[in-house]
Structure formats: structure tokens, C-alpha cells
Task: structure prediction
Amino acid sequence: MTDTARGHNGPTEFLPKLLTVWREGYGLAALRADALAGLTVAIVALPLSMAIAIASGVGPERGLFTAIVGGFLVSLLGGSRYQIGGPAGAFIVLVAACVTATGVQGLIMATILSGLILIGAGALRLGTYIRYIPYPVTVGFTAGIAVIIFASQLHEMFGLTLPGAEPGEIIAKVEALWAARGTVTWGAVGVTVLTAGVILGLRRVRPHWPGMLIAVALASVVVAALGLPVATIGTRFGALPHLLPAPALPDLALWREALPWAASFALLGAIESLLSAVVADGMSGARHRSNAELVAQGVANIGSGLFGGFCVTGTIARTATNVRAGSRGPVSGMLHALFLLAFLMVAAPLAAYIPLAALAGVLGVVAWGMAERHEFAALLRATRGDALVVSVTFLLVVFRDLTEGIVVGFALAGLVFIKRMSEGVAMRPREEHIDTPRADRVVYHLEGPYFFGAAAQLGGVLDRIAETPRALVLEMSGVPLIDSSGARGFHRLAARAAKRGGRLFLVGLRPSLRRQLQAQGLEEPEVRFLPDLAAVDAVLDAQPGGESR
Result:
């Protein structure tokens, strides 16, 4: 089912898709389909939410709080029919760093502030622009995140014992883990291999089965039955609570310290959420409302923080699962959150038996899937520009900082785009196509967008042409765009031609571009705007000493 384009602009721009689905008619059959899809997604989200929370440096219960509160609000208020909100692997690095720098209270404060930023971004209609993140940048930072997530789980995968805190930087982390290689717990290695093997095996032979939940449950049974010396949620974190905590504000004095982290959370959350919504659109044929989605993500982050959770975003894997499970709309996402709440209330004691190595195996498989290996390799082979963007983004994300990787990658992609667009601008003489060449004018044809990149590339050539004391005619019918730098170039070109006794004629210019140039001060007698070459010749013939036909 598709949605109309009015969802992007106009009166429905901020309307939650839940209301759209309700207006279309929502019956018992749709509810049954959504209940089944919600249960399917909850089964996937249950182990994943706890694993992401643990990897982020907080207790597993906070992952469930995030999925329950944040997931419910994203589906209730969001601009996507099928979006599933919750904790995401992409945030592991940032959240862990924030916890280290500001503590859990600082993390909650940053989560709430990021929600306010996202609401502001949606209200300012920035969602339309965030969707234009270049593909090489998304592949580069996704692959970088995958590497960092996998590296963060090596500690639990091998059951290593470190003498101190695990370093955050990748190189220092690998060095510390290598130094502790003598403390490997082979039981943990076996549990990790068992978990990953079951997940990957079921994906091949029974792709519709909840592989992650089955693998974690099987690993828990094996560890308990054999009495393996492997750390579990119970031994590391104690029992999970049976209910959501009462909503509470964090220490407001931490807002200055938390604000930079909030900006990073908001940037990554906006990108991840809108990418997830685009994926859902491609799978379903629907169209999401990007600004409504940003506002919903903001409200969800505020709600998550108030209930002790952390960053909420749209999750691509769970959203895709929701679509494939037959969801009819946002109700499935709301039910997925309620199913997780039911688990927390009824079966929380069972979580104490889950081995941390099993959750590490889950995240290892997630990281392997996130790496986008084939897309990364294809971009490396595509063009030098794409290879540069994806490589620099990847390396900065892994070895420097996630936000820095996105910003630098986006800037590089912009430079590559400018270079390609500049190379697409052509300028060629037209005299060979004219039956009666004239000595008192020179004619050139411009093709392509004349913006600052093209102006810099062609400006010197045009300046040299303008040195000759005759009319310079630019045939502009093939120019779709002129920016302020291009307009400034025409000012300079007209002045140089006039200085040498010549004149600038712009021929065949689109009316909208002519009005744009005139609004920027380029008018007669500095330049003449004429419809065709015959009109230019008529003006030249009318001048004293003009060449007669």
C-alpha cells in the first residue's frame, strides 16, 4: 500500500502514520497480522536489546527500557508505517564513550537533549536534507561501526580477563586483548561459536524461525546443564527488574557536559532512522514522512531517557523483519513494545541465565551483517572519488570518531560531486555551425549547470576570449542552473569585454535564469539578453560600422 506525496509537504507533513492507517480502515484482520508481526519483532529485539545495552556499558535492563518506551513512541507518533524503534548497534561506540565520560546520568541527560534537538530538526523540516547523505558515506560509516562492534565483543567472545578497564580506542583495545590472550575461557569460545552457528544455520534452513532467540536459549541451557564457567547476565548484573521504573529527570546540572554527546546522538539518530525508513519504503512501496519521523524520534528519546533508557533510533534489521512478517502499520511496532514489557513482567528471572558470550555471538553476527562487504568492495572498484569517500569515512570511524567520519565523509563526497558536475559543463565554439560567420562576434555554446565549480573551471578561458574587441555571444539554452558565483562571473566577463570595446550577449537563456541574473544586478547596458543569434546580428548591424549582411 502506498502513501501519497502529500505526506512530505502540506497539511499531513507531521501527521503520524498511525492516524493515516486508522483513516484507511483498520479491522480485526489487520490487528491479527500486526500482532503476529509485533511478536516476531519482539522475539528478535529481546536478546538484541540486552546485548546492545551490555556492549554500550550499561545494564541489560536499560536496553529493554529503551525498546519498550522508545519503540512504542516511535510507532505511535512516527512518519513511517513500519519503523521499529529501539537501541541500535550503531550507537554502541558513542553510548559507551558517553558513559565513560559522563556516567549513566550524563547518558540519560544526553538522550533527553538529543530528543529536543531531533524535535527541533523535524520542526525546521531538516529531514528532507538528512536523507541526502551520499551512499559511499553510509556504507563507510556502517562498515566502520561493524568493525568497532565486533572488536567490542572480543572480550566476551573469548572470556578474557583484563587487569583493568577495556580501552575504548580500537588499537589500544586490540593491544589490551592480545596481552590478555592467556586468560581465554574455552567455554565462552564454545558458547560464542554455538550461538553464531545456530543463528547462521537457521537463517539458511529455517529463515522464518527466530534464530537469535533460539540460539540464546540453547546456549543458556547448555551452560546451565554443563555448569560451564561462563559469565551470565545474573552473575554480572544480577536480576532484572519486573517493571519499568518510575519516570524521573536526571541531574540537570549535567546538561553542559552532556550537550556535545546529545548532538552526536541526534545526528546519528536522524541518519539511522531515515535510512531505516527508506529501506522500509523500498520493501513495502510506502512513503514515509521524514519530518514527522524526526519529531517522533525526538519524543521517543525524551521518553526513553525519563524511564532510564538511552538512545532510540529506527533499526533497519528489526524494521525489515517487521515488513517481512506481514505488518499492516504502526500497531505492530506498538505491540512489539508491549510484548517486551510482558516479558519483563513475567519472565525477567530467566534472563539471569543468559551467557554474555551468547549475546556477544549475537552481536558478532549483527556486525557481520552490518559490514556491507559487497557494497564496500563495489565502491572501491567504482571510481576513485567513491573509493576515496568510502575509505576515508571507514578509517575515520574506526580509528578516530564516528561523527568526524560522517562529517568529513560528507564533505569529501561534496567535493567529488562538485568536481564531477564541473567536468560535465562543456563550452565549445559555434562558428562552424553558422552559415555566415562574422568577424565582429565570437559565439560559444555553454552546456550544463554554470555554478561555482564550473565558473572556476571555465572562467579563465572566457576571460581570455573577452580580451578580443568584438561581441562575445554565449548561447545558454543548455544551461539549467546558474548560482551566485556564476552570476558574478558574468559580471566580470561583461566588464572585461566592455573594457576592450566589446560586449557580452547571453542568448537563449531560460526566463527564470534571466530573472535570477537581473535580481543580482546583471542588466543592460552591461549585458544584452536576446532570444537567438539572429537578434544579436540585428543589434550589431544597427551599430555604427556594423557588419552588413
